């Protein structure tokens, strides 16, 4: 089992965002046809801020506590004066989170407006942060631990794909984890709900480092009817490699990526492989994920039957 250093708890007794005359009014959070929030009883007034968990992409994430129940949540606040592209991502994420109900997809307990045009998501709180957090803290991911985490990620991906949802930005920083080593797929800002079976999914959204070859160059690596869900499987393979080797597998440790270098490596180079000494089952699993020809890549359902993860008991993953 991985050992993680105790986190230093910071108690930032800051108020929730206050109204601002300088912020433009945030557009309606969801289209009229979207279903109601999972839990409509929670409002900003019910929540007490405990600390800042992170910043980025036009907003801030806070650790908050419900004043009456003492339940702890993560509150993602996106500012009303954010870039229009960020606001579109907010609407997309809100729509997807309200559709999903899986133990391995982050749960949203409500989406509501804040004074000044901000919008907030009240979501599950995962006390260990992300898989990227663990990597930065020096956690060593063994094959055994990776297989347990991987089965949970695959179960979440199978659920999403069965509901015609493509994540499109799967990576260590978008996979949350708690002290029981239970994981939740999060951050659906660039995800897509397919309206038709053959909807294209090769746009340059998400993090290019984890982008599959067919999304860089669909003419060379895709086909007219290629599996649009296969890009998530490629991203999963790179994520597992990164967890095991401790750095992004296409680059040397500490090297900063750039679009041209990554595109050339992913499209023209051979897929990265596990180092010597790893088990045949682990190597086989990663190879099934990192097939440059998307038609040869295994699906989430097929991978759940792979020997690397098929024998994992999720009840004992803690």
Automatic annotation (TrEMBL):
Keyword annotations from UniProtKB, A to Z: ATP-binding, Kinase, Nucleotide-binding, Phosphoprotein, Serine/threonine-protein kinase, Transferase
Record region (Disordered): 10-39
Amino-acid positions noted as binding ATP in the UniProt annotation, renumbered to this chain: 76
Biased composition (Pro residues): 26-35
InterPro entries: Kinase-like_dom_sf (IPR011009), Prot_kinase_dom (IPR000719), Protein_kinase_ATP_BS (IPR017441), Ser/Thr_kinase_AS (IPR008271)
Enzyme Commission number(s) of this protein: 2.7.12.2
UniProt record, GO biological process: pollen-pistil interaction; response to other organism; response to stress
Catalytic activities: L-seryl-[protein] + ATP = O-phospho-L-seryl-[protein] + ADP + H(+); L-threonyl-[protein] + ATP = O-phospho-L-threonyl-[protein] + ADP + H(+); L-tyrosyl-[protein] + ATP = O-phospho-L-tyrosyl-[protein] + ADP + H(+)
Leader sequence residues: none
Enzyme class: transferase
Originating species: Salvia splendens (Scarlet sage)
Domain Protein kinase residue range list: 47-309
Name of the protein this chain belongs to: mitogen-activated protein kinase kinase
Family to which this protein belongs: Belongs to the protein kinase superfamily. STE Ser/Thr protein kinase family. MAP kinase kinase subfamily.
One GO MF term attached to the UniProt entry: MAP kinase kinase activity
């Amino acid at each position: 089992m991985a050992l993680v250093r105790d986190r230093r708890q910071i108690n930032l007794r800051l108020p929730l965002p206050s109204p601002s005359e300088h912020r433009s009014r945030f557009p309606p959070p969801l289209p009229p046809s979207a279903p109601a929030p999972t839990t409509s009883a929670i409002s900003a007034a019910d929540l007490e801020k405990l600390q800042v968990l992170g910043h980025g992409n036009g907003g801030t994430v806070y650790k908050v506590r419900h004043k009456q129940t003492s339940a702890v949540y993560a509150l993602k606040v996106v500012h009303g004066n954010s870039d229009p592209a960020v606001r579109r991502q907010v609407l997309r994420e809100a729509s997807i989170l309200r559709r999903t109900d899986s133990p391995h997809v982050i749960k949203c307990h409500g989406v509501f407006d804040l004074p000044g045009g901000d919008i907030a998501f009240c979501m599950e709180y995962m006390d260990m942060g992300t898989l990227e957090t663990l990597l930065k803290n020096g956690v060593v991911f063994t094959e055994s631990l990776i297989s347990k985490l991987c089965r949970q990620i695959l179960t979440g991906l199978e659920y999403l794909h069965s509901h015609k949802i493509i994540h499109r930005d799967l990576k260590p920083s978008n996979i949350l984890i708690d002290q029981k080593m239970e994981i939740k797929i999060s951050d659906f800002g660039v995800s897509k709900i397919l309206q038709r079976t053959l909807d294209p999914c090769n746009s340059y959204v998400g993090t290019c480092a984890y982008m599959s070859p067919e999304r860089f160059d669909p003419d060379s690596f895709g086909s007219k009817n290629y599996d649009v869900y296969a890009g998530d499987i490629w991203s999963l393979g790179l994520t597992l490699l990164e967890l095991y080797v401790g750095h992004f597998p296409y680059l040397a440790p500490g090297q900063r990526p750039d679009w041209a270098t990554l595109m050339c490596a992913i499209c023209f180079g051979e897929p990265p492989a596990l180092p010597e000494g790893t088990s045949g089952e682990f190597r086989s699993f990663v190879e099934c994920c990192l097939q440059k020809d998307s038609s040869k890549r295994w699906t989430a359902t097929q991978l759940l039957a792979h020997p690397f993860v098929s024998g994992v008991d999720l009840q004992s993953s803690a």
